[in-house]
Specification:
Layout lengths: L2 H9 L17 E9 L10 H9 L4 E6 L2 E10 L2 E4 L2 E3 L2 E12 L11 E5 L17 E5 L5 E9 L18 E14 L22 E4 L2 E7 L2 E7 L11 E8 L5 E12 L2 E13 L11 E6 L11 E3 L8 E7 L11 E6 L10 E7 L11 E8 L16 H9 L10 H9 L26 H11 L11 E7 L14 E5 L2
Parallel strand pairs: 1-9, 10-17, 17-18
Antiparallel strand pairs: 1-4, 1-5, 2-3, 2-6, 3-4, 6-7, 6-8, 7-9, 10-11, 10-14, 12-13, 12-15, 15-16, 19-20, 19-22, 20-21, 21-24, 22-23, 23-24
Helix pairs in contact: 3-5, 4-5
């Protein structure tokens, strides 16, 4: 049935509190419905199953839609006559648009197996001619009277529901389920967010590092259709409180749900909700929760590793989608401490990388890139490697281990540019064989002693799933603009620079 019906009679197993409507009981009067079951001929009662259900099960309650509001009313029998309990209504005119008669199927405490026995057809439907009270039905409540409304019903059969005029009608039992979410956002410099809704949070610190409650939204999708969106981007949630997410799960079918988590972050000079995570499940959520029954997530690395939240997201880097990339002058080495010097351009304001010169390294040793040529590049964060084209993903853990080295160079005093480049090439998709190449000395060259193999051994031991801490370094990756996500071969050398995330 329509979700709104089932919230009333299945999910919450409640009925309207008659003490709440209306406010002044002195101005309301009793109204009851006399339910008249129409004697049906073979046209209506098309199977023995219909006869057994209608003739053997007794009604226990009716569900009505009165002036657009759904309500559930118990029923009782006086001999063979069926009446509803009285409800309180103020004098005036009312419109009754649905009238449904249910049996509790001898299980009054279990609403999930209740059976729709009878219903009033709608005007113009094939079966409306059998009743004198076809819907919609209007009636008037008169002051100082005990008002009675007669309603004709006929035996309901789901296979012929269209004959009742319920063009949208289908009996489906729905449970409203709930899950709570809360998030943290590790902001490196709060001043970058002083113009966003984050600054509306209580006790906001305007400068410096900030572990802030995340402002986020969660989209609920069922079977590929967006059902609802829940957010804490409002004053009622103090711009960051926990969020209650509810969703409707149909009992008699398998529902496929997708929850999409968007977090408010800075992109250039703008503040946007960016998709960070997707959960998918059937029917009942399997999204992990903590001992407080809340699913906690964190964007960044400002948490106690001994007590992590249920979801840890890598630090956010405010990067442009594209940039120009040019190798300037000589390479092997560059003048800034890298394998080459790179000039970045076509970058708007507000990003974590800017137009200018950077020390740069290459990720692969088999593909060509030309000095002095300007390349239009797509820009990626190494902290989200699953977004990279396929050829840049194939080496498991490669980027985490490169970031580990960028943040542990103090382990290797007087580290040379070529040692870093050798280390990176040892993680190439086709591992470098150690022979001198592209101005990089061989691993065995006695004139260039190297610790590249030692660094790889340590990275393999300590750099698995490594995420830089606030104030650390992270690789930013450049591939030619428009490279397909499924590309298995690089068209140009995959280049990188490092920045503080």
């Amino acid at each position: 049935m329509l979700a709104i019906i089932l919230v009333a009679i299945v999910a919450t197993n409640c009925k309207k509190d008659q003490k709440e409507q209306p406010n002044n009981l002195a101005e309301t009067y009793d109204v009851s419905f006399n339910v008249n079951s129409i004697a049906q001929d073979g046209t209506l009662k098309s199977s023995l199953t219909d006869t057994i259900i209608c003739d053997t099960l007794k009604a226990d309650y009716v569900v009505i839609r009165l002036n657009g509001v759904w309500d559930t009313i118990p029923v009782f029998y006086v001999g063979n006559y069926l009446w509803t309990n009285t409800i309180k209504l103020a004098p005036g005119s009312y419109n009754l648009s649905e009238f449904l008669v249910y049996s509790n199927n001898h299980t009054p405490l279990n609403k999930l197996d209740d059976i729709l026995l009878m219903a009033t057809p709608h005007s113009g439907s094939l079966w409306s001619g059998y009743v004198t009270t076809a819907l919609n039905q209007s009636f008037t409540v008169v002051a100082d009277n005990k008002n009675s409304v007669k309603m004709d019903v006929v035996c309901f059969k789901p296979s012929v529901f269209a004959k009742f005029g319920f063009t949208y009608f289908y009996l489906n039992q729905l449970v409203i389920r709930q899950q709570w979410f809360f998030g943290d956002f590790c902001i490196k410099d709060a001043s970058q967010y002083n113009n966003s809704d984050y600054h509306l949070q209580p006790n906001w610190v305007t400068t410096g590092y900030r572990d802030a409650p995340a402002i986020f939204k969660i989209e609920v999708w069922r079977g590929g259709t967006l059902q609802n969106t829940f957010t804490n981007d409002d004053a009622a949630h103090h711009y960051g409180d926990k969020v209650s997410v509810t969703y409707g799960d149909y009992i008699n079918q398998v529902d496929q749900f997708t929850f999409k988590l968007y977090i408010l972050v800075k992109q250039g000079t703008m503040y946007n909700f960016v998709l960070f995570n997707t959960w998918s499940f059937n029917d009942i959520s399997n999204i992990p929760i903590g001992i407080d029954n809340v699913s906690d997530f964190i964007l960044g690395s400002c948490y106690d590793p001994a007590n992590p939240p249920q979801l840890v997201l890598a630090p956010w880097l405010n990067l442009p989608v594209t940039a120009s990339y040019t190798i300037n002058g000589a390479y092997a080495p560059g003048s800034l401490g890298g394998y080459v010097d790179a000039t970045l351009g076509s970058i708007g304001s507000g990003y974590d990388i800017q137009n200018g010169n950077y020390a740069s390294w290459c990720s692969d040793h088999q593909t060509v890139i030309y000095v002095g040529s300007l390349y239009n590049m797509d820009v990626y964060s190494s902290l989200y490697p699953s977004l990279l084209p396929a050829f840049a993903q194939v080496q498991s853990g490669k980027w985490a281990k490169i970031n580990w080295l960028f943040n542990h160079q103090d382990w290797y005093p007087n580290l040379k540019w070529y040692e870093v480049q050798q280390f990176i090439w040892l993680y190439d998709n086709v591992a470098w064989n150690g022979v001198a190449d592209g101005g990089v000395p061989a691993l065995s060259d006695p004139l260039y002693p190297t610790r590249a193999q030692l660094m790889k051994t340590n990275a393999d031991a300590y750099g698995v799933n490594y995420v830089p801490s606030p104030g650390g370094w992270s690789a930013i990756i450049f591939v030619p603009t428009g490279t397909p996500p499924n590309a298995t071969v690089a068209a140009v050398q995959t280049m990188m620079v490092k920045i503080d995330p």
